[in-house]
Amino acid sequence: xxxxxxxxxxxxxxxxxxxxxxxxxxxxxxxxxxxxxxxxxxxxxxxxxxxxxxxxxxxxxxxxxxxxxxxxxxxxxxxxxxxxxxxxxxxxxxxxxxxxxxxxxxxxxxxxxxxxxxxxxxxxxxxxxxxxxxxxxxxxxxxxxxxxxxxxxxxxxxxxxxxxxxxxxxxxxxxxxxxxxxxxxxxxxxxxxxxxxxxxxxxxxxxxxxxxxxxxxxxxxxxxxxxxxxxxxxxxxxxxxxxxxxxxxxxxxxxxxxxxxxxxxxxxxxxxxxxxxxxxxxxxxxxxxxxxxxxxxxxxxxxxxxxxxxxxxxxxxxxxxxxxxxxxxxxxxxxxxxxxxxxxxxxxxxxxxxxxxxxxxxxxxxxxx
Length: 369
Fold this sequence. Notes:
This protein is of the alpha+beta class and 369 residues long. The protein has helices at residues 16-34, 65-76, 101-108, 139-157, 198-214, 248-251, 272-289, 322-332, 337-344, and strands spanning 3-11, 39-47, 50-58, 91-97, 123-130, 163-176, 179-192, 223-226, 242-243, 295-302, 311-315. A hairpin with a 2-residue loop joins strand 6 and strand 7 (179-192). Helix 1 (16-34) crosses helix 2 (65-76), helix 4 (139-157) packs across helix 5 and helix 7 crosses helix 9. The chain is flat, with a radius of gyration of 21 Å. The model has no long low-confidence stretch (mean pLDDT 95).
């Protein structure tokens, strides 16, 4: 298509699913801080006054997972004792066991090379990069994340007293010949205190939030929807259930690139769902930065307990030479799990910093360097 409009969405850290993601990643970080070889697969469910922690953790670390969960919920901003879901009163159920021996053995000693580390599971992962922004990210998801982050920042700084933690954004961008031309529409749904006029919320979004978040992409012609349901007082896990791993498109490229289906949060880097996707993003960036194409997508596939990937595919969408790009990847990059972990230095408690506002496009992350 020569002309089209593409839309991506983002959410704030108070969204029920993101609450669960951040609790899971905070528990992961707490284990890695004490034992870098921790094997963690933590899933979280939040609803009303309940939080359920489930999964498998094998580690020498001694972590009070309930304390970590409550501290995370408090930092997000769910502290109102009048709400069912609050840091002090939420009932926490823990259903965590050790990693099963068959998986642990397959990861520790790869079937194709007993001296190497095997993939923690089978699966396919994708990575993507594009020249359309300095961050090498698609513009719609980059801007949607910025709007969500600025919305949360206004709440956390106290700039706007009536904001509450839950929120969603959408940004639509028009393209011509594959080049982003303008932001056409923005949707902001933000939780707020009772008694606030929707006109006040809309005025804040249009005159303060969007100019700040969109920067040079802001203009007077943007069609803006603010709380289109009419009110958003009840929100967060008090109103809606949250589960880890349900925001996989928000976490990646906003739908602009393909996705293998694996979620990130709560998983240590032996799980290639996470480390493989991070490395694919890293490699896609290197292809574009090397001038081999304007857009690059990587796919890698693994078998559980095997160190070498089954396949590595490079796609440049007609913006470069696929064969040259594939040769570049084969010559310069090692997709074995242990090599990925070492190159990106992934055995560190860094994962709570990845949870919100995208796992890609943030310059402080190793796979973005």
